[in-house]
Design brief:
The protein is mainly beta. It has two domains: about 55 residues, no CATH class; about 120 residues, no CATH class. Helix content is about 0%, strand content about 35%.
């Protein structure tokens, strides 16, 4: 690269008053003062320009990612009748409650590193990370019409040992890759 200087106009390398402070350099430095060539006039405007002297490197298009792109989740839930259940409804999620009601949910999940946007992964279990597969189990019981006790357990392990377990959760970002993941969560929910 060239570092060009001009006291009066933006330098192009051919203007009157253009000076090369560095020529064909990859590193370097130079000092200017009132007694150097070119002279630096104190208090006056000056212009610097960087000129690329290396021809650009052409990089072809990147091939599409074709490995580590699969995601699966298979599970089921059962519970006693009379309550509303759904993908995000039921005792486990605290959306409904009834004394002595119960629910059990479980799923197996396999998310390879490049399968999904990391912002979409569930951050409560498996730390919102890709490249993990494992099982999740939740059991909920209605202690009263507005009180739910819930126990959740998750276990996961790394799928591909050659890459990390990237994701978007900030709970434990310093740990990458996660080799094995275990979480036991106990909740007592009061509905008002």
């Amino acid at each position: 690269m060239n570092l060009l200087f001009n006291q009066t106009t933006p330098p192009a390398g051919t203007n009157p008053g253009d000076y090369k402070l560095l020529a064909n350099a990859t590193v370097g430095s130079t000092n200017l003062s009132a007694v150097t060539v070119p002279p630096l006039v104190p208090g006056a405007t000056y212009y610097l320009a960087v000129q690329n002297t290396v021809s650009p490197v052409t990089i072809g298009p990147f091939p599409p990612q074709t490995s580590d792109v699969k995601a699966y989740q298979v599970g089921f839930g059962i519970g006693n009748g009379g309550l509303v259940y759904g993908p995000a409804q039921g005792l486990v999620y605290g959306t409904t409650s009834k004394r002595n009601a119960w629910e059990v949910r479980t799923y197996w999940q396999h998310i390879e590193q490049y399968a999904l946007d990391p912002n979409l992964l569930d951050s409560d279990f498996f730390e919102g990370r890709g490249n993990l597969q494992g099982i999740y189990l939740a059991v909920a019981y209605g202690l009263a019409d507005n009180v739910i006790a819930t126990a959740r357990y998750g276990y996961a392990s790394r799928i591909n040992d050659k890459i990390g377990t990237g994701g978007s959760n900030q709970d434990i970002p310093q740990v990458n890759p996660i080799q094995h993941y275990n979480l036991l969560q106990l909740d007592l929910t009061f509905r008002f």
